[in-house]
Amino acid sequence: MKTPVCEMCLKSGILCRSCEEKVKRGEVSETVVKVSSFLLKLSGEKKQLKDVSIVDVVESPDMAVIICGKGDAPNVIGAGGQNARKLEKELGKSVKVVEEASDIKDFASSLLMPLRVVSVNTIYKDGEEIYRVTASHGRPRISPQNFSRIIKLVYGKNAEFSSE
User: Fold this and answer.
1) Residue 38, Cβ neighbours under 10 Å: how many?
2) 16 plus 64 within the same structural domain
3) Where residue 136 sits, what CATH number does that domain have?
4) How far apart are CA 55 and CA 64, in angstroms?
5) Mean pLDDT per 10-residue interval, the chain, length 164 residues
6) 143-147 — which CB contacts under 8 Å span 24+ positions?
7) How are beta strands 94-99 and 63-68 bridged, if at all?
8) Do 119 and 43 belong to one domain?
């Protein structure tokens, strides 16, 4: 399993100097450490977790978005959502697992699933660049505020959600 924290730290529960510095600098959150540690322990019984990559975990008050490597989402979620449910219980909030993406449209598509992203447009308000992500009809499982916050944390860009 690949994580931003070394395996020895995850197994021991004590961060080495290097990993502790990553946390202090804000490169790695406490939630990343907690999720990575939990998944490493779970990988003892769930062999499909052995080769997954955890890139980051972005949190909002009511949701944790686990960003994993390309093709790893099904393994992190687990058969019938078992692993995701265990993570929800561990974190005390809902969990959304998405794969890392090079652009906002692909990432937004994963984040808003099962809705389909129709377009991503760049608009300017008060001299500020904002991405407007428009999705097909339906209610997303994530609030528009959380969507905007997560895009800002992952890409450093302002975004807003709209529906057709």
Assistant:
1) 17
2) yes
3) 3.30.300
4) 13
5) 91 91 91 92 87 91 90 92 93 92 90 91 91 87 87 90 84
6) 145/60, 146/60, 146/62, 146/63, 147/108, 147/111, 147/112
7) parallel
8) no
3-state secondary structure 122-162: EEEECCEEEEEEEECCCCCCCCHHHHHHHHHHHHCCEEEEE
Statement to judge: residues 96 and 112 lie in one domain: no
As a whole number of angstroms, the distance between CA 147 and CA 150 comes to: 5
Q: Residue 52 has what pLDDT?
A: 94
Q: Give the domain extent around 72.
A: 1-100
Do 149 and 125 share a structural domain? yes
pLDDT of residue 142: 85
Question: Residues 6 or more apart from 63 whose CB is under 8 A from it?
Answer: 93, 94, 95, 96, 142, 146
Distance separating alpha carbons of residues 114 and 49, to the nearest angstrom? 24
Q: Which two tokens stand for residue 149?
A: 């916050």
Tokens of 60: 């909002």
**Does 134 lie in the same domain as 60?**
no
